[in-house]
Task: structure prediction
Amino acid sequence: MNTTFARLACLITLLPALATANTLERVRSSDTLTLGYLADFAPFSVQDGDTAKGYAIDLCLKVAEQVKLTLARPDLKVRFQPVALADEISAVSSGQVDLLCTPTVASVQRRQQVSFSIPIYTAGVSAVVRKDAPEPLLKVLNGKPAHTGPTWRATLNRGLSNQTFAVVTGGVTEQWVHRQLQALGVIATVIAVANNNAGLEAVAQGKADAFFSERMLLKNQLARNDQQDLMLVERTYDYAPVAMVVPRADEDFRLLVDTVISAMYRSGEIEQGYTTYLGGTSKAIRRQFSLYALPL
Result:
């Protein structure tokens, strides 16, 4: 009897994984493909009434076209489901959404719950400050001093110590800022805010000396908010490839997503998305396209 109950308990713990193991069959049964996205993540994804728009949304719609072809369901319903930043991973792992469109960093911790497509963008960490920020802070954040050794470390400490830095709570940038300050031995205050808009407001109101987030998001937010007293620093501090989030242990669905994105890289169609939403491409960006696309 105890053995039976033990086996039953094991099966129950596997149910969430089994529920998401065959995404295409679940979509076929429900006759609906549910695309998750962050609703305030322009230019990648943003809510637009009952639907969504943005660079990542356009890519997701191409995936939806392929799902319809694969399932031979041209009338398959495509539903957009906004999710909160804190819930983006659980929304996929629980089966609430079939695919998370908004590009996300594929960290080791997240890979324990979900899987990821090939990269669809290379994110970069940057910062927003007030235009009247202290010169030592501006110089350090812009990487102006070119000294090495102890002098450079002393310059960093003078520029960064006793400052207050804002980050979005729960994001990988929050972890990155804490790691950098610890590595440099800098004593500073880090405050967590709900979103990018709150981060900009914290700097504008003098509650934070700098707000760290993804560079393209910051550029877009500054343009939308028309913050005359704020500016984006020149420097990008770190880079990371970001991808769509797919259910774990579903290689068929991940292959479908990767095949669609790879075809867009090879055809140059993805470059149109960069032109429309991300300010165009460069030689370096186009080189990344060839690195990210899966070979035939």
In short: The CA atoms of residues 125 and 214 lie 5 Å apart.
